[in-house]
Amino acid sequence: MPNQTNFGQMRIFVILPRIPYPLEKGDKLRAFQQIKSLSKNNEIILCALNHNRKLDKQNAFGKLQPYCRSINFIDLPWYVIPFNVLKAFFTGLPLQVGYFYNSKADRIIKKLFKEYQPDHVYCQLVRTAEYGTNLPAPKTLDYQDVFSYGVKRRREKASFWMKPVLKLEYKRLAAYEEKMFRAFNNKTIISYPDRNLMQIAEKDDIVVIPNGVDHAFFKPMESAKQYDLVFTGNMSYPPNVDAAGYLIHNIMPLVWQKLPDTKVLLAGASPAAKVKALENDKVKVSGWLDDIREAYSSAKVFIAPMRIGTGLQNKLLEAMSMKIPAITTPLANDALRAQHQKEILIGKNEQELAEHITSLLSNKELAGTLAENGHIFVHKKYSWDEATGRLEKIMKNNQ
């Protein structure tokens, strides 16, 4: 089929490591919103890998259909994944690249590429880069986060037996990130701090494309405040598991000394056993919520006490867009770039974070001012259409 896009349009061949619906993970949210924005001026051919046998693919298809000319969900059989990871171990690939790479999926992607003859290939995360490297078209790789450095941070807190595995993965990812830098025309990333962590001499050539927030969806809601504090996220994701434990074990005991009735909500999909174990009469672990806005609006204060991980925290954007006063750590705010004591409160340790919680819960005027300023900040700085417009521009420069 020859390329039949209208003048000025591109046919964009999007390769994703996961089906971008439901939006319980940061990479899925970024992919969905970018597809939605790009589809306004371009045709989208979507190839999304899938290893989740329980996923409602029909529902996901329906959500994506308005934005895509062609939608292709490519299942990765569960029984071949261990073999692919083992193969990656012996061939020198990062293990997570091996996890997502499958020769049958590669053949399907090449066949679809030949059928649709796209103008541009867009790969999300290094996990999909193997599929895109040999496709004969201009291409863009969205690193999104610095996976190598994220693994390095995890290694510092990992168990003894996991440390050598993570050390190996860190070295392989760092080398692979540089290799893929050479293989793609354009490279993008979510924040300047992430770009600065890249171990690539020409890292300044990586274009920063931040996330946005759907302000029409994440807007202030009137709701009864059942909780004093909320933390949201995918609760099986290691940085969120670590943050939840840090909040309940290290920060909240200091808060409870002054405000003993303070109640906390830990909201998000797939809570790990470590997170479920945190539940008690003052801590609620909700699990999956059909509408995450209910979690934000049910609490007086939002906190993201991140100690590991990289990238821009969507949870902060969403809470601030809903006019919830927010607290976080320097690690998370490095990407967000909100102003301390005006738009957000930043704590370097459990003592400072606990003090911020007690001050906001005890001072409604302070909480209201911070919420208002944070709301204004994210409306000015974070828009999906604006950010994706920059992505579209660099793609068109390679046509």
Characteristic terms for this protein:
single chain; 399 residues; alpha/beta; Rossmann fold; six-stranded parallel beta sheet; 13 strands
Written account of the structure:
The protein has 399 residues and is an alpha/beta fold. The protein has two domains: 11-212 and 384-396, Glycogen Phosphorylase B (Rossmann fold), CATH 3.40.50; 227-381, Glycogen Phosphorylase B (Rossmann fold, 3-Layer(aba) Sandwich), CATH 3.40.50. It contains 17 helices and 13 strands. The chain has helices spanning 26-38, 57-64, 81-91, 95-100, 103-116, 129-132, 147-157, 163-183, 192-197, 238-258, 273-276, 293-297, 314-321, 330-336, 350-362, 364-381, 384-396, and strands spanning 11-16, 43-50, 70-75, 120-124, 139-144, 186-189, 207-208, 227-232, 264-267, 283-287, 299-304, 326-328, 345-346. The strands form two sheets. Strands 3-2-1-4-5-6-7 form a seven-stranded parallel beta sheet, sandwiched between helices. The protein has a six-stranded parallel beta sheet with strand order 10-9-8-11-12-13, sandwiched between helices. α1 (26-38) crosses α17 (384-396), α7 (147-157) packs antiparallel against α8 (163-183) and α10 (238-258) packs across α15 (350-362). The protein is globular. The two termini are 19 Å apart. The model has no long low-confidence stretch (mean pLDDT 95).
